[in-house]
Design a protein that fits this description.
Layout (H helix, E strand, L loop, with lengths): L1 E3 L2 E4 L3 H13 L3 E4 L11 E4 L2 E4 L5 E2 L5 H4 L7 E3 L3 E6 L2 E6 L8 H6 L5 H16 L2 H6 L5 H7 L4 H16 L8 H13 L2 E4 L5 H7 L7 E2 L4 E5 L2 E4 L2 E4 L2 E4 L3 H7 L8 E11 L9 E4 L8 E4 H4 L9 E8 L6 H12 L7 E13 L13 E3 L2 E3 L9 H21 L1
Parallel strand pairs: 1-14, 2-3, 2-15, 3-11, 8-17, 15-22
Antiparallel strand pairs: 4-5, 6-10, 7-10, 8-9, 12-13, 13-14, 16-19, 16-20, 18-19, 21-22
Helix pairs in contact: 1-13, 4-8, 6-8
């Protein structure tokens, strides 16, 4: 069977949905094909024994500029985390918060024993600059790795190893901090400007909300794509003839469909989910390891931020590890006993979610975080590997790709 439309979008993740939304607004005929039986790509939520289990620890930042184009975040009923972190150092838990968001925590942050006072002042200056300077100026700065940028800002080895490496390794899924300093600047900007939260119905609520205005009969699920060529998409259900194709799948799948694309290295991530009868902390705040053991990237009581993540009488803890090797659950449980400073013997291990291709690597040079989306001959590509490796990057790339399609169709 041969179908026809103006634009075929391959992939129903965030990038593909953002592209569909822009094309739909423009009144251009389109169709989206997705290999899986659901939308969302890497953003997904399962339900296990009454707990909401996201496909790896993920959060939503309200400062992402593209979100406001696509939905009202109020509809997600977000539960928010504290704007800061706890750092385990020996027998102490040290609390560092964003004084702009948590004014009463400012004095404690200034006196916290992570790095020196000068370190904390220098980091505050770096974050403030990222929050207040125009994005264009930040992206015009000389580019290096994140670690080099932190050291050039005058930060000591102590604050980098005890706070910033464990925290940022969970953000970039990159313990080496080899991620571009331009990505670092945008991350610090979003953390300083926005709030971090979880949708009451899990992270899968985000792609559902973005897809909600789209006609369901234009979304073909369970439809793997075998081949993409100019003017044609070959699926298991038949061929679709079109004027343009937007390939919005993960980098390995995109490279298989578009051999001209450069190979993108992917970072691996594993999240362990535990259920507990009592929360090891009562605050919705991320806990990182300042003892330089380099095993756990972060751990957090998700249900402290969004109570809906656990059934009544239970609490959900997510613990994430960076890298392709996932330690056994008992090893992680022992680390959690140390990090939280209390027994985990009555915790239940719900599941371990390993994501071998969780996030694209973004070493320098990344330039202005805007890689080309138009490949010629009516072929386009979208995904967070074309912008920043983030939810914002995925949404922006899809929006940009749709804009490039519209320009080409109007010109033709």
């Amino acid at each position: 069977m041969l179908a026809e439309t103006d634009v075929v979008i391959v992939g129903g993740g965030l990038a593909g949905l953002a592209a569909a939304r822009r094309l739909h607004r423009a009144g251009v005929p389109w169709r989206l094909v997705e290999a899986e039986g659901r939308l969302g790509g890497r953003v997904a939520t399962d339900v296990l024994d009454g707990h909401l289990i996201d496909r790896g620890f993920q959060v939503l930042n309200t400062a992402y500029p593209r979100l406001g184009t696509l939905l009202d975040t109020d509809q997600l009923n977000l539960g928010y985390f504290t704007s800061g972190v706890l750092v385990r150092k020996g027998d102490k838990l040290l609390r560092l918060v964003n004084p702009l968001r948590e004014p009463t925590g400012g004095p404690g942050t200034a006196l916290a024993g992570v790095g020196s006072l000068l370190d904390r002042l220098r980091f505050a200056a770096l974050a403030t600059g990222c929050a207040t300077l125009p994005a264009s100026r930040l992206l015009a700065a000389p580019e290096t790795t994140s670690e080099t940028a932190l050291r050039r800002a005058g930060l000591s080895d102590a604050i980098i190893e005890e706070l910033l490496r464990p925290f940022l390794s969970g953000v970039f899924i990159d313990r080496e901090l080899s991620t571009s300093s331009h990505v670092l600047a945008m991350v610090l900007r979003s953390f300083a400007r926005g709030r971090i939260g979880l949708p009451a119905e899990g992270m899968a609520a985000l792609p559902r909300a973005i897809a909600a205005p789209l006609p369901a009969d234009l979304l073909d699920l369970d439809t793997p794509v075998a081949e993409v060529t100019p003017g044609r998409v070959r699926t298991q259900a038949g061929d679709i003839r079109c004027r343009a194709v937007v390939v919005a799948v993960d980098p390995p799948a995109a490279a298989a469909l578009l051999p001209a694309l450069a190979t993108v290295r992917m970072h691996s991530y594993t999240t362990y989910y535990h259920s507990a009868p009592e929360p090891p902390l009562t605050e919705p705040i991320l806990l990182v390891d300042g003892d330089r053991r380099e095993l756990v990237a972060n751990t957090v009581v998700l249900s402290n931020a969004a109570a809906t993540y656990a059934p009544a009488g239970r609490h959900l803890i997510a613990t994430s590890v960076v890298g392709p090797t996932a330690p056994p659950e008992p090893t992680i449980r022992a680390e959690l006993t140390r990090l939280y400073g209390r027994s985990t013997a009555d915790w239940t291990h719900l599941t371990t979610v390993a994501i071998p291709e969780a996030l694209p690597a973004a070493p320098p040079p990344q330039g202005r975080l805007r890689k080309p989306v138009a490949l010629g001959e009516g072929l386009f590509v979208a995904g967070d590997h074309r912008d920043s490796p983030s939810i914002q990057g995925a949404l922006t790339s899809g929006w940009r790709a749709a804009g490039a399609v519209l320009d080409e169709l109007r010109a033709g």
